[in-house]
Amino acid sequence: MKRPSILKILLRGVCIFFVGLFVYGMCWGILNLVEEEDYLDVDTVDMVRWCDDDYYGRNYADLYDMLTLYDLEGETYDKYWDLVNGYIDYQNYIMWEKAEAAGVEGAASYVKEYYNKVESNAVNCKYPLHEPSLRQFFEEIRK
User: Fold this and answer.
1) Would you list the domain boundaries of the chain?
2) Fewer CB within 10 Å: N-end or C-end of the chain?
3) What is the pLDDT of residues 114-141, one digit of tens each?
4) Chain centre distance of CA 53
């Protein structure tokens, strides 16, 4: 059996050392990044601006995604949730109406339930700015 030369052993040792040093440095950097948590902090001002973009652009599905993804709750975001919840009721009505047309059992009760919710949203609007959108949703499904 042939013995490995000392030069090969030294080269392997040096390579293992540098790979270990690289892995250690990467782990150290990741741990510092996670520990600081600065990369996760987003100002409320930024969140409101992002929500406003979808809100005024009438991208209610994207607005819902933003609100749920970042778990945005509280007074600051109530106006967004009010409109988004009205939009969700409207979309659920459309979905259940299609299910009823396809013959899904029990869909008729959901159609009636969501019709009443959409109507209630249009009549009992909390924010005057939402009234046109919520009324439009109701007008589109009015029978």
Assistant:
1) 6-39, 42-141
2) N
3) 999 999 999 988 888 889 999 999 999 9
4) 15
